[in-house]
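Ticket #4471: structure export looks truncated?
Reporter: QA, pipeline team
Priority: medium

Steps to reproduce: submit the single chain below to the structure queue and open the exported record.
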Amino acid sequence: MTKLTPLLLLLAWLPSSARAQATFYNGKTLRVIVGSSAGNTQDQMTRLVARYLPKYIPGHPNVIVDNVSGASSMIAANYLFKLARPDGLTIGTVSRALYFDQLVGRKEVQFDWSKFTWIGSPVEGHEVLIIAGNTPYKSIRDVVNAGQSPKCGASGTTSTGYYIPKLANEIFGTKFHIVTGYGGGAELDLAIQRGETQCRATSVSGFTGFGAFRDWRQSGSARVLLQTGRKRDPKLPDVPTIYELMNDFKTPEWGRRLATVMLYPGEFGWPMVAPPGISADRIDILRTAFKSALADSDLVMETKKRQLELSPSGGEELEKLAKEVIAQPRDIIERMKGLLGD
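Actual output as written to the record:
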């Protein structure tokens, strides 16, 4: 008589649909797309999560990670929404602010932000606006009073380097000039070092963590003008939040409403999404695996070693948020169009 292994006994007991899901990923490859250039904080975190995901997916698939950068991850998002098969074998991280382009009606958009399959995010992603230490600007008010326009580098219109200084121009009266077309973080840093630009936005975790920014902080090569969280980050206790600055500048109600919509990306963090139309049981597998991977003690230890932060959000939470941000009144959308216009 043939003896059944515990796994075979379990599969025999499961309903047929559950058995199919338990074996679906056997021998398959999970492709993880990163909508940014290699080496930045988002890329590092995505690759770290991707290493641990298969451990918690039944069948333990192989995994490959591909960088598909360009247009602030617009290329990656369009691919995931329109071309990738909805079979649970292709997922990816995209820009947290891509919904801007959908709201203002850019023709390049081939996705519906509210209809992605939302898997989760490892962090909440608040930002800082930094400026070169060799400039005379020590505060946002210095920029307002300046006779010249500091140049901020950005990769595209939904990158933080674009919309954060643009928002400051709108609600504070700063005079930032935004230069787009940079490929990613490394190019933006090099532009400041070369003097092509003087400022850029980046994540709080990236600026306070590893790499070049650590040297910049220690040498005084960069100053932080503002941070986008509602509360000051403990690592940046002397840097005002954009909400404090709105109080100081007596920003009117329309400006506060506009800021709220444009700062929602911080709540999305670095979202991991998949094509629409994936079966409910497979979505559950991916979301459960994501949550388990983020709680894995080895992953947590690695993030601490790399000075990365974890504050995960689940797919269900992000799905609800995605529907909320798309449902904006016409007056806010018109102001966004004016602000984000090229």
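Status: closed, not a bug. The export was complete when the record was re-opened. Leaving a note from the reviewer for reference: The radius of gyration is 21 Å.
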